[in-house]
Amino acid sequence: MSDEIHRRCVETARELSPLLVDAIERGGPVMLEVDDSQPLAERLCRSIAGQQLSVKAARSIWARVVDAAGDAPLMEFFTEPNQDALRGCGLSGAKARALCLIAAEARAGRLEADELRMLDHAERSRHLTALWGVGQWTADMISIFYFGEPDVWPEGDVAARKTLERLTSPRRKTLRTAARFAPYRSHLALYLWRHVDAPPV
User: Fold this and answer.
1) DSSP state of 147
2) With contact defined as beta carbons under 8 Å apart, do 184 and 8 qualify?
3) Distance, CA of 15 to CA of 36 (rounded, Å)
4) pLDDT of the residue at 201
5) Looking at residue 178, what DSSP letter applies?
6) 55-69 and 40-49 helices cross at what angle (nearest 10)?
């Protein structure tokens, strides 16, 4: 299947830009690798903790968070009285608050992966971005890498958007360009991340 998607993406790119064709041909085929081994709430929290940080810094901070929790389950540890401890791990006040609010939703049974899996990306995004501290970028990453959605264009991802602009035209709207790759817009993003060697956390 990845070979067929690769061919489709190359054919679409031929209508747009030789530079994009070259990037996709050299980068593929790509596999959409899904990892839903963690509970959804934990994955959300880790994604938020790592926002706007290098991969190395994000891993370091998350390791400190896990150490601080000790034997306590993370969703039990992420509570308001522990926000100072979370900030001591290197999280901003806003990130610490977001983790605690997500954990509260999880403890209340309102973040069940099986239920969200049945929604399409738009509905799932509405549900996730209703949580304080969860933006569209996080919702996009969760849909792509946790739920394995093949057709998500992460417009808010700077690396994907700027690379698509550079390989096509800065005058052309990236949303419109990416729409040409439906129903494989997630794969387009994978090619672009591979091209700049800047995958998301």
Assistant:
1) S
2) yes
3) 35
4) 42
5) H
6) 130
